[in-house]
Design brief:
Helix content of chain A: over 70%
Helix content of chain B: over 70%
Largest sheet of chain B: 2 strands, antiparallel
Number of helices of chain B: 4
Number of strands of chain B: 2
Largest sheet of chain A: none
Oligomer: heterodimer
Order of helices and strands of chain A: HHH
Largest interface: A-B, 35 and 36 residues
Radius of gyration of chain A: 29 Å
Radius of gyration of chain B: 19 Å
Strand order of the largest sheet of chain B: 1-2
Number of domains of chain A: 2
Number of domains of chain B: 1
Chain lengths: 102, 145
């Protein structure tokens, strides 16, 4: 068991030895070339998060709305899907019968 | 007719996320953290609970729909957007810990994480938009949503 742990530690150290410089290089590249473009999105998100309601009632209302929407969607679309499944099964049976006859 | 199996799956998903995002943080806060008001973690707990309620609603919507459907893809997209807002809010909140006996004040902020998380979340949202379009196109071909 100790040998396996030592082997794992050795591999981990090797991995870190190669990975950390690569990760630092990647982070430096991102900081210079990508992150400046994200500041606008950050500002927008900051504005948006400040406008979010602070009362629990609003979030409970969203939860109830999503649950009702989920039930309605389930009721409406699963019915249609069930019909389509039945249709497909019927057409499969007919094609199998025809194939058997021929 | 509703699909009872899927509805049950949705209810289980909603209850489990309500437990992990609402009940568990609240219990931990009341039992262990409320006695240390100097930590000032109420803001974190409030936001975890608020967004947890929305996340559990979306989880219900997502899990109550059949696999590879547009509804499930939309649920994934909504979930990634809500997670982005949730973590953005958590990372930008600043907690100030005040220890009166020692006259020490420590300010904890996780804003350093935000850019790298924002990048990852935007890539995730883009992937989910592509997924919705893909499922929508395939649903159009087979005439089922």
């Amino acid at each position: 068991m100790q040998g396996e742990v030592d082997l794992f530690r050795e591999y981990l150290e090797k991995f870190m030895y190669y990975f950390i410089p690569f990760a630092e290089e990647l982070l430096r590249y991102l900081r210079e070339n990508v992150f400046p473009y994200l500041t606008e999105i950050m500002l927008y998100l900051q504005d948006f998060s400040e406008k979010l309601p602070n009362s629990f009632e609003a979030y409970v209302m969203i939860f109830i709305l999503l649950v009702v929407l989920g039930i309605i969607a389930n009721w409406k679309f699963e019915k249609r899907e069930e019909k389509e499944k039945k249709k497909k099964e019927k057409s499969k049976e007919i094609s199998e019968l025809l194939f058997g006859v021929s | 007719m509703t699909d009872k199996k899927l509805l049950r799956k949705g209810v289980i998903a909603a209850i489990s996320s309500l437990f992990f995002y609402v009940a568990l943080p609240y219990v931990i806060y009341v039992k262990y953290l409320a006695q240390y008001p100097e930590f000032g973690v109420e803001k974190y707990i409030d936001w975890i609970i608020r967004m947890g309620i929305v996340i559990s609603g979306i989880n219900f919507f997502k899990s109550a729909s059949s696999s590879k459907s547009v509804r499930q893809a939309i649920g994934d997209l909504l979930l990634s957007i809500v997670y982005l807002i949730f973590f953005f809010k958590l990372f930008t909140l600043e907690v100030t810990v005040n220890v009166p006996e020692t006259n020490v004040m420590v300010s904890i902020s996780m804003e350093g994480f935000i850019y790298i998380y924002l990048l990852a979340a935007l890539v995730g949202i883009f992937a989910n938009i592509v997924k919705v379009a893909e499922v929508w196109a395939s649903a159009g071909r087979s005439r089922s949503l």
